[in-house]
TrEMBL record:
Family: Belongs to the UDP-glycosyltransferase family.
Pfam short name (any one): UDPGT
EC number annotated for this UniProt entry: 2.4.1.-
Gene name tied to this protein: LOC103328992
Top enzyme category: transferase
CDD domains, A to Z: GT1_Gtf-like
UniProt keyword annotations, A-Z: Glycosyltransferase, Transferase
Superkingdom of source: Eukaryota
SUPFAM superfamilies for this protein: UDP-Glycosyltransferase/glycogen phosphorylase (SSF53756)
PANTHER family (UniProt xref): GLYCOSYLTRANSFERASE
Gene3D superfamilies for this protein: Glycogen Phosphorylase B
Protein name: Glycosyltransferase
Amino acid sequence: MKRPAELVFIPAAGIGHVVSTIEIAKLLVSRDDRLFITLLIMKRPFDELFTNTDSSISPRINFVNLPETTDLSCFKFFVENQKTQVRDAVAKLVESNQSGSSKPRLSGFVVDMFCTTMIDVANEFGVPSYVFFTSSAACLGLLFHLQTLRDEHGKDVAEFMHSDSDLVVPSFVNPLPASVLPGKLLDKESAESFLNYARRFRETKGILVNTFWELESHALHSISYGKNPPVYPVGPLLNLKSSDDDKGGDILSWLDDQPPFSVVFLCFGSMGSFGEAQVKEIACALERTGLRFLWSLRQPPPKGKMAMPSDYADPSGVLPEGFLDRTAKIGKVIGWAPQVDILAHSSIGGFVSHCGWNSMLESLWYGVPVATWPMYAEQQTNAFQLIKELGLAVEIKMDFRKDSEVVVSAQDIERGIRQVMEPGSVIRKRVKEMSEKSKKSLMNGGSSYSSLGRFIDQI
């Protein structure tokens, strides 16, 4: 029998990246009992220390919290500064595994898309590297395309800033408007870093992508040749475990009292929040639709402070006067939301979302159509893909950016909510079909099941 193998996973700091990484780790060890996985968790000052409280996680998955690094002046340097800690943690692991032939051998690093500097550490240990790409295959293709334009044709990506031109990108069927490019690609300095990540992807032995063939066949086909390493679509990787939070119980009890598909759910991710003027426009739109709603309303951190949004002690201060009283019978305003539990509930008929990739995969899994309202990162590109490429979403706004001064009008919000809640719409039907395909992809013989098998075979 082949000696057991140990993979070291290095997710980027941030709950979205850690959650997806845990899901792929769980999937891998469930498929092969000779696999062991160690996750090295990086912590920023405002992140909570990661503790594994999930008893369903295999004892063959080990978590190591790396010492905190306080230098947050630049994310790239934050990761760079973790190299010594990663080197020390892996050296300890290798040492403890040398004591017997039944102990696992170090077989490779699986690094997050933002942690490609750790490929250097893998090289020091003489093991191959793989990338875990937590966004879409279309976005991966976009990075590869722009990196080629820069490195082989001397094209400066930052020239697309404030441009109204369209780009022809192989991983998209339709021309991509510059207005929906990820924000980091429109800034000269950060674009350099991002395209350097993409260049390093090509040094690895393979790229695991949190997607599935049936959703992104065009994009996956476009990146599966040439100078790129093998691409393994292994998604959707989702944490579908129910929340045991007390607040979650109160929310779900309220949903239990609502008719099927009658509630629109508004939630903008762990970093999503709005100023008072925008909050009032959302409230006005909800009131005008007369539809039932569940709204996760978060308070922005103080200006200039690097922190997560928080719950309002009393949201009535930012809402139009009397709004909570007038909508008491049809709506519920909450703070933090147990998103998966809510999307899984039969009363949810539509989702107004920031279009984070995890959220998009969750909504598709549960067959809930999305009205797009992207905020940051690659969310504008995700919105474009869902609306224009795949016909799986409606638009409230496709090119909104969190740091802009734009206030989306109540009229636009109302239109988007009415569209996403329309019973029997073509989009609702397509989302339901994609929901079934997403589940089949992970079953024995499904596209992602087979793809993960191919990855395991060559570890």
